[in-house]
Amino acid sequence: MSTNKTASSSWAAAKAAKSAGPKAPGSKPVPEPKTHDCLLGLSFVFTGELSSFSRQEAVDLAKRFGGRVTLQPSSKTSYVVLGEDAGPSKLAAIKKHGLQTLSEDSFLELIGTRVGPSGTHAKGAGLDEKFRKKMEREEEAIRSAAREMEKREVKEMKEAHGGQLAVSKISDMSTHLWTTRYAPKTLKEICGNKGQVEKLRQWLQDWPSSLKSNFKKPGKNAMNVYRAVLITGPPGIGKTTSAHLCAKAEGYTPIEMNASDTRSKKLVEDGMNIHNISLDGWIAGQQKTNALGVTITNRTCLIMDEVDGMSAGDRGGVGALNALIRKTRIPIICIANDGGAQKLRPLTSTTCKLPFRKPDASAVRSRMLSIAYKEKMKIPTNVIDQLIEGAQSDIRQVLNMMSTWRLSNDTMTFDEGKDLAKMNEKYTILTPFDVTSKMLGPYLFSRTSRETLNDKMELYFHDHAFVPLFIQENYLKTQPAGTRDLAGSPKMLKHLRLMDKAASSISDSDLVDVFIRGPEQHWSFMPLHAVCSTVRPASFVYGSGMGYGGPNGMSFPQWLGQNSKQNKLGRQLSDIQARMRLKVSGDKVEIRQSYVPALFPHLVKPLVTDGSDAVDDVIERMDEYYLTKEDWDTIVELGVGENKDDVLKKIPATTKTAFTRRYNAGEHPIAFHKAVDLGKVPKKISGGPVPDLEEAFDLDDEPELADVSDEETKKPSEDQDIGGDKLIVSKSKKATRGKGKGKR
Amino acid sequence: MSLWVDRFRPKTLDDLHYHHDLSTRLKALAASEDFPHMLFYGPSGAGKKTRINCTLRQLFGSGVEKLKIDQRVFVSPSRRKLEINLVQSSYHIEITPSEAGSYDRVVVQDLLKEIAQTQQVDLGAKHRFKVVVINEADLLSRDAQAALRRTMEKYMSNLRLILCANSTSRLIAPIRSRCLLVRVAAPTTQEMQVVMEHVAKKMKFDIPPEASLQIAEDAAGNMRKALLVFEALKMQSPDLSGPLHIAKPDWETYCHKVADLIVQEQSPARVMEVRAKFYELLSHCIPPTVILKTVAEKVVQKVDEALKADIMHWAAFYELRMRLGSKKIYHLEAWVVKVMCLYKHFTYNFDMSEFD
């Protein structure tokens, strides 16, 4: 029992130490390694907190020198680098497997002293037998794959040029992008997503029989009830390639339409042969598709690429596509990046979703290495991994990066790779939810975090309109890290102090916001707004305890809904005020604060207590103040607390209907007609609000000048207005009068 | 039947029950040939509008009571429709420029020019000029006020302005100097009692003096509120005797509940609860300043003497910020957190020097 207790306490201590970060960052220099691949063939596990490197830095260091880093120790782990307060489970694993452990210093020493394979004369010396064999095997595989590619290119050349390949080959090679040149030619060559590709192929294979059974038999993967599939996934992972290769493998002629084709409703309806009546006409009309060199079979397959790009010009395209899918007699493969997009809603019920994932580095690595080998580039494995990671597994981008690099260099070091990946970093827009959980989460402001103020402000700019609202909505939901080592009342007081600081910073941000979005439009204040509204509040209250779901789940800002509700009720209130104006002297605010509570017992209460008997009195009272039935609804809606609009539920349904019927039956005085009902032509306002600057008042002469010119320019337009006005008013007046009579 | 407050509203300057000096002065002004631009200011429920209407009647006779409402529509450059209600008689016109939002300058200029460019049609009218009453003048934007000052001089022959505002602090100095300032102070308790007795006499019943005193004290100088409460009480207990329970308006009780919440517990969860209540009040058109004032006054009643000054200081601080800022809830919430923090620190006897 006591061991259990110590284990838990050491865990708590470890957590505290983790948040404390390295004691003296950067205090130990990294020794000059003998060879750049000195850690090749070794696999490391890091545990505990090192004193001079953050975890990320230590892992980078191991990778840089060719080492492999895994998260959990196993029998294959060569070394475990132990820091302070190592995890108990990892210590147990070390004991179990009898692993070698290193301290931080001896890890650095290892870097400084170990000689990698490139430093010795004999190839592979210094590595254990198994690893060497494995490496050799891998290298052989890479080389053979490269040879394969070479052979195929030569063959294609031969076919294309009828034997005379010697000269044309070279010129032809350089004309193609690497992404086309090294695109997978068979299903086997596709990196990652093997299962999904196989499913797609199977579905295509079963398609004719599914059609015969009228899509009633689900089949092995339960996909055969669908006439179409929707492949979704991030760019550059081979969605289009897989679709084409599967179609080819199953003997279909793929017809591709992508964002460069217009795909409006009309074109989708007319351009596609939905009923598949005449296949010949279809192929003959689309000469271009034959140019791909695909053998024309009697089976076609439609590939709709980038369906989430069907927008603006392609009005109604998705709807038409959906209609097409419902009755198609050829398989349709749709491809999109974002499967959850609103636009693709109609497709969810008609298509089978086939999500493609980003392949991990190991799935892409060997193919990249083969290509590098064939292009005679010397890029070590760890650099390739770096590139793949940097491009977020976008194979197309890795290839593009490599081909660009090839123009100037044929080797690449770890640092160069890192820089290149950084340079080509994709700018992904985070959702406000992600930004908020990152901002208020426990890591961004912890002591080990390497993010600069700039990086933190950058998060605000992912969505500068929403992020502040999200922060304001959610900043009270964390367990601030600043109160972690306290307990009891000091903790509570500290928590309140942090909340206070955050709240006052948010209050500051609103003042800045007025400068930005107010009449002055000082957009250059945005960085200041970023700090006041987002970074500074988060820096006080960051901490754990906020995720999706749970008691403190992150929520969408209420401000938006509440604000529009306020505007709506405000508008209705000014309507009431305008009507009551003939009787009442108060302004809008006074109406709400004094008259609405005062009228409540006369207009609403009697209906609750006396039922239908009170209806006549209520209507009389309403007429007295020129209130309509809509205004009555507004008065009910405006109540708070005990007058809240759920009093409506207390009014019996019979009373309500009696009230409505009686009101509609009678005649009521009307304070005024809405200008719109009278058909008045709205007058255009020329100048908008001008900047609200103090200096503007010091110039005495200017307003007058502006006045005069205003008058001159306005006159002709006013004349026109009046002309138009007269005509329209006289017409519509008759119309409204007629209507009024009809009613009576 | 309309409410008493509207039914027994005085129609002429002679009928007014208090501020008799002011009434005589207004009468003299109306009789003289050079009637000036005027600015009526004072707290709500003091009788500004009533006095303006009485003055107009004094100027033009009973014709000013024949009111009609006319709605004008403007289209802003961003294609938004602005509906402006004009309350008018043949002699005067009443506008509320705050309905036009940020386009108030253009709308006010346009309307004033239109009115000023036409002569008085009625030959039998007592005066050659027409009167434009501008409601909520303290809500006019700065550039609208700047635009007004020239107009006030230029069209003086055809036009007089009567501005009506709660306070002069938001009006620019040039406007103030062009007007005759008329302060309509809140009535005293005695004056309010007189009015209530007058109403009671008209309704043919007697009001016990202690009842009228209690109502007047509760209303704190707001005549409208006093009369509305008076009528509500009369409905509840027809003889108005015994201890009176003055029902607070819905929003006020709600604000007091919020104050209770703040004093009872100080925690993030409670702040969020309070935030929800604030949203409820704001969305139901209770002005943020009123919310802050009501809640702060209630909180102050419940806390220790030593905290009162601080709480009010911060209320004033955030009230100013609310006026400057756009998202009122941020400042309301910042104040609540501040109060909770102060309160908690005080109960634990903590040093609070860092909050100054």
What would your notes on this structure say?
With 744 residues, chain A is an alpha/beta fold. Chain A has 6 domains: 2-119, Rossmann fold (3-Layer(aba) Sandwich); 131-188 and 359-420, no CATH class; 193-355, P-loop containing nucleotide triphosphate hydrolases (Rossmann fold), CATH 3.40.50; 432-556, Zinc Finger, Delta Prime, domain 3 (Up-down Bundle), CATH 1.20.272; 560-665, no CATH class; 694-743, no CATH class. In chain A, 53% of the residues lie in helices and 6% in strands. Chain A contains 30 helices and 12 strands. In chain A, helix 3 (88-97) links the parallel strand 3 and strand 4. In chain A, helix 15 (381-390) packs parallel to helix 17. Chain A starts with a helix and ends with a helix. Chain B is of the alpha/beta class. Chain B has 3 domains: 19-183, P-loop containing nucleotide triphosphate hydrolases (Rossmann fold, 3-Layer(aba) Sandwich), CATH 3.40.50; 189-236; 250-355, Up-down Bundle (Zinc Finger, Delta Prime, domain 3), CATH 1.20.272.10. Chain B has helices at 4-7, 20-31, 48-60, 104-116, 142-154, 173-178, 189-202, 209-219, 223-236, 250-264, 268-283, 288-302, 305-324, 328-347, and strands spanning 38-41, 68-75, 81-88, 92-95, 130-134, 159-165, 180-183. In chain B, helix 4 (104-116) runs parallel beside helix 5 (142-154) and helix 7 crosses helix 8. Chains A and B meet through helix 21, helix 23, helix 24, helix 26 and strand 12 of A and helix 3, strand 2, strand 3, helix 4 and helix 5 of B. Strand 12 (683-684) of chain A pairs parallel with strand 2 of chain B, so a sheet runs across the interface.
